[in-house]
């Protein structure tokens, strides 16, 4: 989808990283509905969120209006636009089935997962297309489907446009996305049986499987088997939410964690580290 550039001298395209991954800017083309074709003058990408931004050196093009994905509600009607199976400008409809979906496996380098779920039919080729509300505003970028056959099963996922906007702004301003980290490997699933065994009456929280040495988590005294229940005053539902929250913090920022350990509650102070500096040494997919 196209969004306006500065001084109307350029136009930007929002899409998925996996749509253009591995291609040089001169290999990427953008086709408009009126048949015009442009080459990307510049490409920015963030594999961890699967967001990419392309620049076209042409102003005055029709652009999409971005909405506010924080206002999206379950049951709201939406339209999905894309090119499934190479069928350009296909439109399907459905509803928002859920918000803040993250407990899904997308493989590869995607680490930041906070999706809108929709039953609007999305198929291979729909990636990078907009999810639109009934006011014609873009509220997400269609990204993935859950299917055993690799075709529509009524369970599809879109990156919320507010997250895309935040990532795109950092890509354009800094060329990369700055993210925080602690140095933990978290359990992908925190089962009710695990919660009962640890003395908790609910299965919310993020269970620590590994604390990596010489990291902010190790310095803060976090331990394997701890369950992080709150970050500052925000309750933690699961490991994916904690990853997203930590990733959104700035390096050097101090946080307070509410930790369940040996059937008692503790408060742990930690200082956020810089993920870009650490990822060459530590790179597990579920590490906040």
Question: In brief, what are we looking at here?
Answer:
This protein is an alpha+beta fold and 288 residues long. The protein has helices at 17-20, 161-174, 192-197, 216-220, 239-247, 275-278, and strands at 2-4, 11-16, 29-31, 37-39, 42-46, 51-56, 65-66, 77-82, 90-101, 115-118, 130-132, 137-145, 156-160, 180-181, 184-186, 206-211, 227-231, 234-235, 254-261, 264-271, 273-274. It is built from 6 helices and 21 strands.
Walk me through the structure:
The radius of gyration is 20 Å and the shape is globular. Helices cover 15% and strands 36% of the residues. It has 288 residues and is α+β, with helices and mostly antiparallel strands. The chain has a six-stranded antiparallel beta barrel with strand order 8-9-10-13-12-11. Among the domains are: 97 residues, Trypsin-like serine proteases (Thrombin, subunit H), CATH 2.40.10; 99 residues, PDZ domain (Pdz3 Domain, Roll), CATH 2.30.42. The two termini are 31 Å apart. The mean pLDDT is 88. It is built from six helices and 21 strands. Strand 19 and strand 20 form a beta hairpin.
